[in-house]
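User: Sequence recovery, please. Input:
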């Protein structure tokens, strides 16, 4: 106990995670070695997380939930980890993901890149690796970012499935992320998505020009009780909005976007034409 380090949970989100891990462990009179056996993680790693010398990973958070019997509750370490990853830069995103997992209808518009829950693992990895090269995230965070993206896709494959309406700016399918092989697999993923009975895929061509109502990512959710909410992002901020007076105009603009965008048949034909060029 002589070398015990005092923890200040208010110092940072990572410090709050470590302090909670220690207090949860000590409340059960477990040593770090005891928790190590239950989590299949070294006691040194547990010590590092508790004292903020090591950052927790998604796998670590899930192992802690299993050890403390928190799986399936609203107070998991996994949830705390996700909120810690997004932090203040994307403050509405963790809450949005929770609503998305329960939404009856999901509408989205994206420009530049394929949206997360339509990405192949290879496509997502290329984007994450680029963020590592820029120094935005660590290699470990890149792996975790991809895992989270794939997990979100699994969340949407529920019963009954939500209705998903996707409109992509033409730049999404023309931007050669990862080169021909990665793009071929990604474009194939889009055509498979379009074949599902509960999905709609449209391309908003460059020719729409100024008629496009959106210039950045927009997500719109319709919940089972028919309430509406929106989520929009800038480069550094995310905003979740449940005020009907501000969400309804976005919904009307989205419907107009769908009317003017290429039909699903036309959009799939555009994608198939690009795929031929990638072969």
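Assistant: Recovered sequence (279 residues):
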């Amino acid at each position: 106990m002589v070398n015990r380090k005092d923890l200040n949970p208010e110092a940072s989100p990572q410090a709050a995670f470590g302090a909670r891990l220690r207090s949860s462990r000590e409340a059960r009179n477990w040593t770090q070695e005891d928790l190590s056996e239950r989590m299949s993680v070294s006691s040194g790693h547990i010590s590092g997380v508790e004292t903020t010398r090591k950052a927790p990973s998604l796998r670590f958070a899930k192992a802690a939930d299993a050890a403390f019997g928190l799986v399936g509750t609203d107070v998991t370490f996994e949830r705390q980890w996700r909120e810690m990853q997004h932090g203040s830069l994307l403050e509405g995103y963790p809450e949005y993901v929770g609503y998305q997992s329960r939404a009856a209808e999901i509408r989205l518009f994206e420009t530049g890149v394929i949206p997360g829950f339509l990405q192949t693992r290879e496509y997502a990895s290329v984007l994450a690796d680029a963020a590592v090269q820029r120094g935005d995230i660590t290699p470990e965070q890149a792996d975790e970012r991809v895992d989270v993206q794939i997990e979100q896709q699994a969340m949407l494959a529920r019963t009954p499935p939500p209705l998903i309406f996707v409109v992509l700016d033409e730049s999404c399918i023309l931007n050669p992320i990862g080169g021909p092989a990665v793009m071929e697999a990604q474009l194939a993923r889009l055509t498979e998505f379009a074949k599902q009975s509960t999905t709609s895929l449209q391309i908003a061509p460059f020719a729409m020009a100024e008629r496009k109502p959106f210039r950045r990512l927009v997500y719109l959710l319709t919940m089972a009780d028919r309430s509406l909410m929106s989520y929009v992002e800038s480069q550094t901020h995310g905003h979740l909005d449940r005020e009907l007076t501000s969400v309804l105009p976005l919904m009307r603009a989205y419907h107009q976007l769908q009317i003017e965008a290429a039909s699903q048949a036309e959009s799939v034909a555009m994608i198939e034409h690009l795929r031929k060029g990638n072969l």
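The two ends are 64 Å apart (CA to CA).
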